[in-house]
Amino acid sequence: MLLSFKTALIPNNRQITAFRKASGVARHAYNWANAQIKDILAAQKEGEKLKLPSAIDLHKKLVAEVKSEHIWYYEVNKNIPQKALADLRQAWDRCFRKTSKQPRFKKKGQRDSFYLESGTKAKPAIKNDSKRIKLPSIGWVRLAEPLPITVTYNCVISRQADKWFISVKYEVEKPPILADRPTIGVDIGIKELAVCSNGEVFENPKAYRHKTEKFGSELILVDRFFPSSQICSNCGNHRHKMPLKNRVYICPDCDYKADRDLNAARNIDRWFVDIFIPVA
Asked: Alpha-carbon distance 56 to 136, whole Å?
């Protein structure tokens, strides 16, 4: 069973420089590949018969044409540009399936990240000693909180504001299912969050109560039979029927028109003013 773990890193100045350099290579490879595919798509519209390159094709071209002109590619782990190209190609595949928009070019300093791997899935090689993790081509980096001592195959380093984070997945043994363990039925509802077969009921969380206490306000409940959806918040006319399928309130007297819920909210506000605020 795979578990995910994300925590902040505590890198030294040398490691921060390495992180920035790796993020720059990942961003450059991603943007270069994005430009390549956009150019091919534009040429296809002009009638040229060009095939869209796969992630492997893009990597071969990057090695042949780009890395030789940008020697800083050789200063980072080779997996970094490879994963950036694969991510870009997957982004275009989602676009072609119309499940997402066209991938944009990445900007420096916005969502900087890069991918690292070491060893194989069968024999992972990224190790940690709970307080530190050993990253390929970078070395031991301190962790802000202890990571379960394990060995993983890959990880993602990302930056948020001025902090760097690491995300890893590690495998643990799945606990056995005990046949003699008692069972329980759980019904997820609307009125209550959950009702269990043993009679236990879990209420829906009332976040608004906590917010009123936090910001020094007071919560006042309107009677459940108050016809907030049937009253015109503009002229006060009372409609006797307002079924749930009608999402827009239209007053037959003054032609006032508003969203059903907005009209109800204004009536509740007026109810409070009429009852709780004395007339001067």
From this structure: 22
**DSSP secondary structure code for residue 150 in this structure:** -
CA–CA separation, 266 and 222 (whole Å): 13
The three-state secondary structure class of 25 is helix
CA–CA separation, 142 vs 134, rounded Å?
9
What is the length of the chain? 280
The CA distance from 29 to 58, in Å, is 9
- Tokens linked to 57: 């094709």
Best CA proximity match to 156, nearest among 167, 148, 145: 167
Give the largest Cα separation in the chain, rounded. 83
For the chain, report the end-to-end CA distance as a whole number of angstroms.
68
3-state secondary structure 195-259: EECCCCEEECCCHHHHHHHHCCCCCCCCCCCCCCCCECCCCCCECCCCCCCCCEEECCCCCCEEE
pLDDT tens digits, 63-80: 999 998 999 999 999 999
In 3-state terms the chain splits into helix, strand, coil percentages (rounded to 5) of: 35, 25, 45
Q: What are the pLDDT digits (tens) for 122-141?
A: 788 888 888 999 999 899 99
CA dist 85 and 5 (Å) reads 25
- What count of other Cβ atoms lies within 10 Å of the Cβ of residue 22? 25
CB-count burial class (<10 Å; 0-12, 13-18, 19+) for 277 = exposed
Tens-place pLDDT, residues 151-178: 888 899 999 988 999 999 877 777 776 6
Q: 3-state DSSP call for residue 143?
A: strand
